[in-house]
Each structure stands twice: as structure tokens, then as C-alpha cells.
Amino acid sequence: MPDATAPYTHPLVEVNDLHVRFVSREATVHAVNGVSFSARRGEVLCILGESGSGKTVTMRTLLRLLPRAARIEGQVLVDGRDVLAMSAKELRDLRGRFAAMVFQEPMTALDPVYTIGQQIGETVRRHTGCDRRAARARALEMLDLVRVPSAARRLDAYPHELSGGLRQRAMIAMALSCDPRLLLADEPTTALDATVQVQVLILLRRLQRELGMGMIFVTHDLGVASEIADTIAVMYAGRIVEVGPVAQVLRAPLHPYTAGLLASTVHGQPRERDIDAIRGSPPDMRRLSQGCSFAPRCPQRVAACLTMVPEPRFPSPGRMAACRAVMNSAGNGGNTPLSAP
Amino acid sequence: MIALSPPLDPRDRGGPLQPMLIARDLRKHFPVKGARGKSVQAVDGVSFTVRKGETLGIVGESGCGKTTLARLLLHLVVPDAGELIFDGDAVSAPDGLSVNALRRQVQMVFQDSYSSLNPRMPIRDTVAFGPFIQGRKKPEARDIARDILGKVGLDPDLFGPRYPHELSGGQKQRVNIARALATGPRMVILDEPVSALDKSVEAQVLNLLRALKRQLNLTYVFISHDLNVVRYISDRVLVMYLGRVVELGPVEAIFSYPRHPYTRALLASRPSMDPARRIDEPPITGDPPSPIDPPAGCRFHTRCPFAEPLCETASPALDLWQGPQSHIAACHMLDPNSGHSRATNA
């Protein structure tokens, strides 16, 4: 609940104290450990985190796209409806209609034995019940919308006949074909070349604005987040450690992890000096410590960090950081006031 | 401890001015199955030198041939044509350096840190394997492995007995670096060594690579698609597009005064890291074309905003334009006599 400023009666997405564990005979992986956030209509929320931080699992939970071994606890509301209580049919109606998803690897997310046109058309027919001809017309319209050149010809192409950038555009076209209000994008540009990545980012930003969708965008790349996000939520070890408007978070990060990530991302540091890298390695999600998960690597650690998970602090409107070193805004404190980084 | 000037390596034959490696007109085409006469022109006439003690960065998008080029430098794939000269000796020539002798002095670190380690071997054996194969006695090879594991920041007692699956990505990449260094190479080819790593770990590995280079007096060829990383670590940068070199020069010249339109587009495609200065127009459109049947003439002409009929037919030579400090670029616009309408600006 880092964000309490939503103007609607219910936010587009609201997640409260979400826990996701993957239980197997050998071990239990604590992928998500008490995540709460909300996403507003017409806004881009970026979930930023490194591999294993739980960012993808959090997003997939919104559509319940998780394997059977997943144990989900908490509350997940999409458009005010409880996703965790939905029946299989309700889920099918939700997926692709109200909320659609763009995956990282278009080559594996698209079906290799159907043409692009058939795959987009299938989604349209499933949700609107229109006939094949109308679905095909809609597919063509969508390919034009995502600026696939010579779209009419590409409609009958199989995924392997397209370049990486065009495949990703085709997947975006499919996701948008039923006019979703919420677009979930899981590292959609990571597999693309630099010159293509920027094209897809610009496209997504333009479509999101023009169609007025809410978008949740998962990435590990601060540069990508800075190009697309309105709000940024930084995840570490299955928890959200910082939330805020993207410009503020990048300019003045509050959580030591965010600051460390910013410092260790190579972007024009002087060549003579070492990069200010975060020490150590990410925690083992099978054996999480009881305190702040970042504490073992944190340069500002105090004894209490190792024993207690820090409560979220709200130092200024719209900003949250789960760190003992961050002070609440005036009259809201009470905890050990350490200097903010 | 104060680092003194590095002791002269007894294997150094040509002296400091002899380039470590000269690649001349290297070419590798892979035939395409089921399509007679067609081939992937992975590397098509690439020439450059690697100076002793420098880091040469190689950048380019997927399919531009940078990995094939790396493999050619070690004869992991045999070139169709062209010449490799290592410290003055022609590689695999009758009176030159044998491939085995080359690999004693040049080693490689691969991108995928997991698949490049033997899953059934504890890492101390993996690291000791190279020296052992090259004729060291087993205990001696083990001592080398212990020493080098310590150098890459892995406690040999703690990590030596472990298997690759017990290590994190960053630790595995450290093992790969140790494995490459165990044979005491003078030059290391790093093929996207940090791209599979998380940012916080990437920074650690980059710091490690820089420290090892100083400590062991190494020469690096650093291949990456990440321009920010290349700028940080390289002394000179080579830009590839579809199997050819389009620009080569000192790192500051490439990043501050890029001359080839492709280099400019690559640089402009980097995310800004500043939400107030977002990129609004893509610097170039479309995807890189397939290296099977690449465009004739200048290979970039299909995506170049300044392409003219000339560019579709005439292939610009790399040394068409030569700037200060051996900065070279292959673009007709830089040649006043080419006939390109923008050529006068050069």
C-alpha cells in the first residue's frame, strides 16, 4: 500500500501482503514474501529487480499463471475482483480480455505451427465471439497499429519467418487485440538488440498512452525502466524495498539496495576507478534470513537489521522505502532516526 | 604493495611495439543446409590489430559475427581465408606458430558460465585441467588451481571441491576466468563475459577483470553488446555490422566523435538513464538483416538514413577515412571523392 492516492474507488490492481512459495520435496522456495502495491489506471508501473527477486512471479500471480506447486497467500485484486478466488472460466475470461501479457521470449511464447494472423484471430474470436473474417480484419488492424511493415503479408507468416523485433511486435499486437485495460509486460525487450529494443520501448509507451491502459512492466534494467516507467517498485528477495516516481528514485534512491544497483550499473563512470559494486551475492531463496534480506550486503547495516524485517517508511508523498535508515515524514516517526543515504 | 613496471615476459618476442595479434582479412562463411550456394557470411574480411596490454572492445548486434570472430582468433573455427599473426608469428603457417602453441598464450572466457564448465568435475579439477593437459604434474596443476582460484576471489578450500551447479552465476563466471588464466595466457578473449549476470554481480566481475589485467599484465579482447560496459573497460573499440568492421578507434573518439551512421545509431539507442531525457524517435528503424545474403554494397544501406544509390553498389573500405589516433570508419560520406552528396561534410 505504498500508494494511497488512487482517484478511483478501486485501483486497477491492488495486491496486499502477497506470499508465494514453491514447495517441492527437496526445498521450499520463498519467491514472494509479503508484497503490497497498487497500480493506477493509465500509468506505467515498473517492477525492477534482479534474477530471483520475485518480480516475474509477482506479475504472473496477477493472472494466476503459476505452476501447481505454487502456494499463494494474500490478496490480489484486479479491477476490484479477487483473482485468487476466481474459477477457471472466470480466469479465462480475464486473461487476454481485461488483462493481457507480453512475454520475454516471443519465439517460445508464440505457437510455431500457426500463423501470426491465426494466433491473433484466435484471441479475438475467443473473447468477442466474432467470425473468422472479422477476426482476421482485426488482426490486420492490430499489426498496423504496432507498425509491422507490409502487415497484410505478415498476417500469413509463421513466427520463425519473422525477425526478433517483428515477433515481439506481433506478440504485442496479440496482447492488445481485445483492448485490455491492463497490459503486463515481462522483460519484453530483453531478448532484443539495442537498436530494436528502443523501437519497441517507444512503441509500448506510445500505445499505452494512446489506449489509456495501465501497464505493469517487469525489468532488470534501470535504463529500460528510466525510458518507460512512471512509478518504479524495486524488488529484492521477494519484497518491495522501494517505491517512487521514476525520476525521484533514479535521482535520489532511498534504499541502500537501489542506491547500490544504481552505482553498480555501468553508465559513464570514470574509467580509472573501480565500479562501486554491491558486495556479496543475492540470498538463497530457500533459506531466507529473518531480518532485512539485504542486510548481509548492506553498507549501512546495524544490528537490528539482521533480526527484524524493516517496516515500510514513507518519507515523502508517493515514496516508500523499507529500510530502518529512512525516516518517515514529519510526525510519523518513532524509529531510530538514521541519516537517509 | 606498489606495482612496479611489469617484468618483461620471456615469451614476448616482438617487443612492446609488435602488436599482440594482427588479424588480416579474416573470413568465415557457413554453408546453409538445403539452400545450395547460400551461406551465412558471419565474418567477411575483417582486419584489425590488438596492441600489447590494451583492451580492445568489440561491439555489434546479434548476428554481426562477433562471436564467430572470437572463435576465429583461437582457431576454434578455422577461417576460410585470412591471416592471424600472434606476436610476429603467423598462426598455423608452415614456419609459424602451431594452433596448440597459440592456445597456450591465448585463452577464452565464454558467455554461458554454466555450459562452459564440466558439470561432473569439481571446480578445482576444472581449473587444474588446463595446466595438466599442457604438461604440468598433477600436484603442480592443483597448486596452480588453488592459487588462481584465490586470485579470482574464490576461497580454494571452500569452493574448490564444489560442482558448478552449487555455484551462483557470478561465482561460475569467476571459475571460468580462473580456468582461462590457469594456463598463464598473455591474451584473453572475453565473449560477453558479463551479459548473463545481474548488474550487481556484473560490476564485481568487471572490477575483477580489470584487477587481473593489471596484476598479470594481460591483453584483452572484450566482446559485448553493452556499449556502456565497453566504454568503461576498453581502450579501443571495434564496431561490427553484418560480418564487417564499420568503425575502429580509441574509445573516447568512438563515443565522443562517432563517424559511421551505424555507430551513431547504436550510441543513440542507449537508454538515457534519465526520465527527463527519454528517446522519442528511434535512431534507426527495422531489425538487422539476415547475414544470409546480406545487402550488397555498404551492408548498412538498408537501414541507413543517408543511403544513396552509390551505397547500394559500392562497398566502402574500412580505411576510407582515417582520423587522428588511427580512428577509421567505412562510410562513403567520409570520402570527399566518393560522389555521395553529403560527402563534403566529412
Could you explain the architecture of this structure?
With 341 residues, chain A is of the alpha/beta class. Chain A is built from eleven helices and eleven strands. Chain A has helices at 55-61, 88-94, 106-109, 116-128, 132-145, 151-154, 164-176, 194-211, 222-228, 246-251, 256-264; strands spanning 13-23, 28-39, 44-48, 70-78, 81-82, 99-102, 182-186, 214-219, 231-236, 239-245, 320-321. In chain A, the strands form two sheets. Chain A has a seven-stranded mixed beta sheet, sandwiched between helices. The longest helix of chain A has 18 residues, at 194-211. The two termini of chain A are 23 Å apart. The relative contact order of chain A is 0.14. Chain B has a domain at 264-345. Chain B has helices at residues 66-73, 99-105, 123-133, 138-151, 156-159, 169-181, 199-216, 227-233, 251-256, 261-268, 309-313; strands at residues 21-31, 39-50, 55-59, 81-86, 89-90, 106-109, 187-191, 219-224, 236-241, 244-250, 321-322, 328-329. In chain B, the strands form two sheets. In chain B, strands 6-7-8-3-9-10-12-11 form an eight-stranded mixed beta sheet, with helices on both faces. Chain B has a four-stranded antiparallel beta sheet with strand order 2-1-4-5, covered by helices on one side. Chains A and B meet through helix 7, helix 8, helix 9, helix 10 and helix 11 of A and helix 6, helix 7 and helix 8 of B.
Key phrases:
heterodimer, A: alpha/beta, seven-stranded mixed sheet, four-stranded antiparallel sheet, B: 346 residues, alpha/beta, eight-stranded mixed sheet, 29% helix
Please provide a brief summary of the model:
The complex is a heterodimer of chains A (341) and B (346). Chain A has 341 residues and is of the alpha/beta class. Chain A has helices at 55-61, 88-94, 106-109, 116-128, 132-145, 151-154, 164-176, 194-211, 222-228, 246-251, 256-264; strands spanning 13-23, 28-39, 44-48, 70-78, 81-82, 99-102, 182-186, 214-219, 231-236, 239-245, 320-321.
